[in-house]
Design brief:
Blueprint (H helix, E strand, L loop, with lengths): L2 H33 L6 E4 L4 E7 L3 E7 L2 E6 L3 E5 L1 H8 L24 H13 L10 H17 L7
Antiparallel strand pairs: 1-2, 1-5, 2-3, 3-4
Length: about 160
């Protein structure tokens, strides 16, 4: 066999080796991160839940997900160990908001009209809007239309022949 024939296989094997090595490094870094956890450390699970480490076992970790609420998780479910500043910023909202930053309200009350006068004005405006004909007829018009269709059918000879 010639070298040209073997070249694609050599390249493929080399690429597989590099991908495997990269994945192995990532796994080792994640294992090291989990081993470096200490009680009191803030973590994020792979499911996106933030909690505080309370106790560490061989394969499990006891997390406090809310004050007084504890849950046992597998160590492999820890996605990231956070430093104290980042954990407090995310969980407790210890952000330094600037005066120029936009503040999003917790509810929609600021988006609705607060005065009844505004609501009355809007209702008056809605009454002035012309109705759009969608091709539907009122009930009285529908009955009248049906009667005229029956009369037309009888005139054309399509009615019941007795």
């Amino acid at each position: 066999m010639s070298l040209v024939t073997l070249l694609p296989f050599i390249v493929l094997i080399g690429a597989m080796f590099l991908m495997t090595r990269s994945a192995k490094k990532k796994q080792q870094a994640a294992a090291q991160m989990r081993n470096d956890m200490q009680p009191g450390t803030g973590v994020r699970t792979i499911g996106g839940m933030y909690a505080t480490v309370k106790e560490i076992q061989d394969d499990t970790v006891l997390l406090e997900v809310a004050p007084g609420v504890h849950a046992i998780y597998a160590k492999n479910s820890i996605g990231a160990v956070l430093d104290d500043a980042e954990y407090n910023r995310i969980v407790h909202g210890d952000d330094d908001l600037k005066a120029d930053d936009a503040v999003v309200p917790d509810d929609a009350s600021s988006l609705t009209a607060t005065e009844t006068a505004d609501a009355d004005t809007e209702a008056a405006d809605d009454a002035d809007v012309a109705k759009i004909d969608l091709g539907k007829k009122a009930e009285g018009d529908a009955a009248e239309s049906k009667d005229s269709e029956v009369k037309d059918a009888k005139a054309d000879g399509e009615g019941d022949a007795k």
